[in-house]
Amino acid sequence: xxxxxxxxxxxxxxxxxxxxxxxxxxxxxxxxxxxxxxxxxxxxxxxxxxxxxxxxxxxxxxxxxxxxxxxxxxxxxxxxxxxxxxxxxxxxxxxxxxxxxxxxxxxxxxxxxxxxxxxxxxxxxxxxxxxxxxxxxxxxxxxxxxxxxxxxxxxxxxxxxxxxxxxxxxxxxxxxxxxxxxxxxxxxxxxxxxxxxxxxxxxxxxxxxxxxxxxxxxxxxxxxxxxxxxxxxxxxxxxxxxxxxxxxxxxxxxxxxxxxxxxxxxxxxxxxxxxxxxxxxxxxxxxxxxxxxxxxxxxxxxxxxxxxxxxxxxxxxxxxxxxxxxxxxxxxxxxxxxxxxxxxxxxxxxxxxxxxxxxxxxxxxxxxxxxxxxxxxxxxxxxxxxxxxxxxxxxxxxxxxxxxxxxxxxxxxxxxxxxxxxxxxxxxxxxxxxxxxxxxxxxxxxxxxxxxxxxxxxxxxxxxxxxxxxxxxxx
Length: 475
Ligand SMILES: Cc1cc2nc3c(=O)[nH]c(=O)nc-3n(C[C@H](O)[C@H](O)[C@H](O)COP(=O)(O)OP(=O)(O)OC[C@H]3O[C@@H](n4cnc5c(N)ncnc54)[C@H](O)[C@@H]3O)c2cc1C
Hints:
This protein has 3 domains: 1-83 and 143-218 and 315-373, 3-Layer(bba) Sandwich (FAD/NAD(P)-binding domain), CATH 3.50.50; 87-140 and 220-312, D-Amino Acid Oxidase, subunit A, domain 2 (D-Amino Acid Oxidase, Chain A, domain 2), CATH 3.30.9.10; 377-460, BFD-like [2Fe-2S]-binding domain (Arc Repressor Mutant, subunit A), CATH 1.10.10. It is globular. It has 475 residues and is an alpha+beta fold. The protein is built from 12 helices and 22 strands. The mean pLDDT is 96. The strands form 5 sheets. Strands 1, 2, 9, 10, 11, 12, 19 and 20 form an 8-stranded mixed β-sheet that branches. Residues 7-13, 30-33, 38-41, 44-47, 49, 170-171, 198-202, 206, 224, 266, 309-311, 336-342 line the site of flavin-adenine dinucleotide.
């Protein structure tokens, strides 16, 4: 019997699991995917928004501002990268400038730092801003992360401290019992006192399983598509460039990433299915047209890939974070679309301290263990690199030439708690395949290393899910 079962190992479930792992309680996390952060938390803009734009009075407004303030310390504690890169929200005409007035006053009300700049002043800092930009609000506390790195680090530390994690297990039924809940997966049956539903795009279906009737919220999947530019394009902008927000959300952005790529996107289109994350020519054209309104000189010959992510949007526009009125101990952490990533650490605290008000009041552990951060060779100076190689020569064997990832880092990614078991899992943790060649050179080498480390045949190595076969037979 567990105290708490968390369904979903995205950024939301990972922050909640990490927070609970500091306390004396027995927690199980279940996810249908082959890795942590493999759904919405994998494919998004990766921005820790400052929190000036959510509608006043919403949970989004409250938790975004709090989450933004929590990220720098949490990332430091976990040993993962957080970069405060700042952002401009730009206006191209007087009507848009009026929207900036509203954002500025919301920022002041929320104590979010905001600098009002003329178009000319903004262009001195960002020379590729369009000549049409007449005014910009700068939000210096806007940050960027790699969301999956944060989620994996959180889950790794939670597991080190006793949390159990079951991947590749799909929850198929939930039943209320006299002492809590029975959660049935496609592989096993588990009992717990409480259930936290952090199932993203499937949260409404998970709640329906427990309720045995339609819930009072529904998830509307909204797809956003992106171009990724090679790091050679990194000088296009230094800050994130947002247009003024509209009814469809924050609009099409130009975003620097932690690995010095540039993202262009996203659009926002309602889709028919929570699994349809295909790219479409029409959405990518829309992205191109809209980027051009705020930023010029985009080098489209430096596009190295495209991708799409799906927002688990709710039907009333705000996060839905509540204990069920009819099912005591069943907590929905649902409708977590943007700014869900930025809000996630504050969402975890809100669930534990406010929604459950003392019922998760387990004693804090005195012997909490911190993870050892991954050492990335391309972040070390020559002396530190040589020391690593002297200790373990596999750190001198470069596997990914684009991102300069060594065999030692790949072995570490596989061997650590919540280690990589797939090619995508290795890519998410240490980066081979993220660069210009997109794995063309290093992927077969990663397959070899995974097969050897996991003690399996190469034909059994998967790209991601159990059906993503890479090699079918030996020649
Ligand atoms: C295009 C786009 C851009 C965005 N940009 C930003 C941004 O810049 N900043 C920001 O703050 N937010 C952004 N967001 C929103 C942010 O990505 C989400 O709010 C956040 O990732 C949601 O995390 P989650 O953990 O709630 O959901 P998820 O990451 O989707 O996790 C839910 C998990 O539940 C699992 N699950 C579902 N059903 C079952 C089942 N039956 N059994 C077991 N497991 C199950 C899934 O496999 C999944 O891993 C963006 C979203 C999109 C799509």
